[in-house]
Amino acid sequence: MPIRVYRPTSAGRRNASVNMREDVTKTTPEKSLLAPLIRKSGRNNQGKITVRGRGSGVKRMYRRIDFRRTDRLDIPGTVVGIEYDPNRSAHIALIQYADGVKRYIPAPKGLKDGDQVLASAQPIEPSPGNAMRLKDIPTGLNVHCVELTPGRGAQMCRSAGTYARLSNKEDRFATLVLPSGEIRRVLLECRATVGETGNPDHSLRSLGKAGISRKLGRRPKTRGVAMSHNAHPLGGGAGRSKGNRAPVSRSGVPSKGGGTRNRKKHSQTLIIRRRKSRRYGQLK
After folding, report:
1. Has residue 144 got a pLDDT over 60?
2. Distance, CA of 73 to CA of 132 (rounded, Å)
């Protein structure tokens, strides 16, 4: 059972659960692929807090992930082990290539120790973990780690349990159905990895208490309606007041599903259908 629910031996254990990480086979990271991770605690280059509720947490080392895989084309690689990565929701797989080079990639669902993976510029077998151009992947398959610009590296569907369905190919573009329900076109020259991202049970875990959230680097945040009128757009009023306005952040940016996308963005024309918001319905 990947998710184990704790017994309610205390208030912090009640309704708490833990991810057993049954597919993790390697516990110590590869030292040659580690890098220091400097904490910003939600501050910009001027030292001002731009993202509230960030700070503290357990120290981490960054794992260098190969999101491009373009310099390993047509070199077979063997999965050495599946590891837990504290910097992302998905697990990572340590790959040792035939020339001895080791790299990390996001671990696809179903990938095991000893499996072979390959990245190629030519059509190859569409097995989980193999990376190639969208023009070489058969339609109807699920893909992850999808590029938005050829050669830039994977930008979409990198978190745990996510994937995009390759529905069809037309002209220079492939049509992808994203997990949010958005349908968009991507250039056929962009690369993607076959399969779904692993660790799909990540979203089923319940932290159970605030102490676990603090270890993850999240600090307490005051609700906007509890602030003064000069501290937050939702603040002020006599007694408890909802403010009778749409939910926004402290700087006035719409939150909880409000649209914030720049309509003048050049890739706006590549989106066939926007995602559906739980609060505002279909976004324009």
Report:
1. yes
2. 9
